[in-house]
Amino acid sequence: MKYKAIIIDDEAKARRLLQTLIEENCPEIEIIAQAEDVPNAVKAIHQFKPDIVFSDIDMPIYNGFQLLDFVDKTDFELIYCTAHNDFALKAFEVSAVDYLVKPIQISLLVKAVEKAIRLRNASPTITQRLDTLKENLKANALKKIALPIADGLRFVDLDNILYLEAEGAYTHVVLKDNSKILISKKLKEFETLLSDNKNFFRTHRSFLINIDAIKQYIKSDGGSIIMSNHTEIPVARERKDDFQSLIESIRL
To answer: Is this model's pTM higher than 0.85 or not?
Structure first.
């Protein structure tokens, strides 16, 4: 099956290069149009009804984030091409909006296309995912995360997470209402994504906690933490000094 795609970039050379990379490495994708700005891209989207749109972000007049403000229906997947900083890339990841960093690597292009095809008919739509991305970028801090579940994505405020618990290659995300969401990601991946968020601390190889949800810290027997839902979480010996320094920094 062929999937129709449109490329949006204000630089003609960049458009030609991306089309060549797609044609040589993604045989399931057919480039049906190119556009140098958002107004022309909107016309092409309405005319050709693409399955996937590859869009630059920094363009004159309207940027790539504003594209969806002008289209009638967002029944396509968006893959952004960006030169943004590390924080912005984390914001893309936790919002489930795909991106490619310029200069584009072929392996990552193929991976992004495969993901876009999988998400093509998924719920929620790209509109909700982009709203989450904008919220995180505007705050210059991660506020919300899109968690991949069996039938799509679930959007969760980081403030609503009590802790994350490892289970092999999976992670349980435990929320304030005591509900658990099992995610097919290792805890280390969450630790990396949340590394700039001072509210999350890796207490143990199996636990990443939200320090705002700590109810009590017990120093004896190696150290443990009582969370607001009364769950007791261990503090590993090698993490104890770092945790106590954290506690000292926030105590009265």
So the answer is: no
